[in-house]
Amino acid sequence: MTRPAPQAGFNSTGRIDYGPFVMSSSGHYHELEQTLAGEHATIALGAGLAPILRPGDLVCLNGGLGAGKTTLARAVIRTIAGDAALEVPSPSFAIAQLYDLTPPVAHFDFFRLDDPAEVEDTGFRDSLCERVVLLEWPDRTGSLAPDRLDIEL
User: Fold this and answer.
1) What is the DSSP string of 41-57?
2) Per-residue pLDDT at 66 exceeds 90
3) CA–CA dist 18, 132 (Å, integer)
4) Which end of the chain is more exposed for a tag (fewer CB within 10 A), N or C?
């Protein structure tokens, strides 16, 4: 498979090499495995993803503590806002941060949830209809609709 040229990154005047990737396909399911070459590549991935997101899109951010989930979410939000200096606090304690941007964005972090039933009190389900939803720790929800983008960091 031919490797595409590196993409322009967030707040970058040059090109960023995200690292090696592998793509496979099975029926209607497509998988792209991309090894990110550090924080700058994670930010560039978020900046590249942001322009294609629309209200109703769910982006599930998976990975252990410190994997880069919040870094990726911040890059998406800052790119949509058009403000690289925008303060984007982690929703770890608040559970949710809402951004009235175009398109509107909701950033959820379910790390502190102990039971999938707690999801109902977060505003998550309502946000799915109205906003781009960035979700850290999606495994805490119990189950999600199949129409989503899963990113493993």
Assistant:
1) HHHHHHHHHGGG--TT-
2) no
3) 24
4) N
